[in-house]
Amino acid sequence: MQSEPEEDRELKEFQQTRSTMDTTVTVAVYASNDSEASKAIEDAFSEIYRIDALMSPSKEDSQLNILNTRGEVENADPAFIYVLDQSKYYSEKSGGAFDITIQPVLDLWKSKFLPEGSQEPPTSDELNETLKLVNYSEISTENGNASLSPGMKVALGGIAKGYAVDKAIESLKENGIENAFVNAGGDGRYIGQKPDGTSWMVGLQNPDRSEQYVTAIEARDIAVATSGNYERYFNESARVSHISDPRTGYSSESLISSTVIARNAIDADAFATAVFVMGEEEGLEMIENLEGVECLIITEDRRLVYSSGFKEYEAEGYS
Q1: DSSP class of residue 255?
Q2: Closest by alpha carbon to 200, among 175, 173, 224?
Q3: How many CA within 13 A on the CB side of residue 75?
């Protein structure tokens, strides 16, 4: 008996949400039956768990922690090498505004606000000394080994989730899924469409009203990621941004958020972080020089700043 072509089968939505990578991850697929959907979703999560095991800062035996503790990983996993190499590409494109070797600066800030810490920001001397350890060009990935210069550490918070989303989407495609999305804490990638022919809709939260959206994106075969510091506006005590500028060591505070549309999630994730660090003018200039990448910036004074092609993705009623 011949199997029916996908367009003749009735497709139903199947969705699962799980906690991993220190966030909430949702995998949604359209499939014709429960067993097809279950296998595809399980395989997609397996890819995400695999990336998390390699790149988690909270797992002692992750290759990230081994690199940060010992300064090198021999015979590193190709996925880990790929993310390290890609990170250097984003560093170059952003003039160092994206730099995964920022970890020593993050550690310095954190130490200041521990119970036994000074409860004061680091001094400029402390920051300048620590910034000597921030240099993406010192990441080596030769002969399948990863290594850093002494004292350096990397943070993959601005890139690992995006990469995991891409690997999950690849897995879904390998299982014959044509219409799906994967979203990891605001980093999402969307393929195909809904059975009624409409696009996936991605709402961008209003920083002043968490239940409202400033815009909605029609997402079809694109990735969307947002970097931001919304907490500062809901919570007076959370004024220090979680995203620091690797060039200065200080928190990035000129924007509320940056949302980037790209072909894949690793690009969207990293460039959203870079734009947030760079600010309005510098960030927009970088995006305009990248092919197939668009952004929407919300400035601290609540202005919406669009790259030249962003509005093409906006849903009717927003553009």
Answers
A1: E
A2: 224
A3: 0
Query: Distance between CA atoms of 64 and 72, rounded to whole angstroms?
Result: 10
Report the interhelical angle of 160-174 vs 265-278 (nearest 10°). Answer: 160
Strand pairing category for 255-262 and 294-299: antiparallel
- Report which secondary-structure segment, H or E, holds 233: helix 231-234
Q: Which of 169, 160, 144 is nearest to 45 (CA)?
A: 169
For 127-155, what is each residue's pLDDT tens digit? 999 999 999 999 999 999 999 999 999 99
Model-level pTM?
0.92
Cβ-based burial of 197 (10 A; exposed 0-12, middle 13-18, buried ≥19): exposed
Phi-psi region of 101 (alpha: psi -120 to 50; beta: other; left: phi over 0): alpha
Tokens 């994967």 — which residue?
A: 182
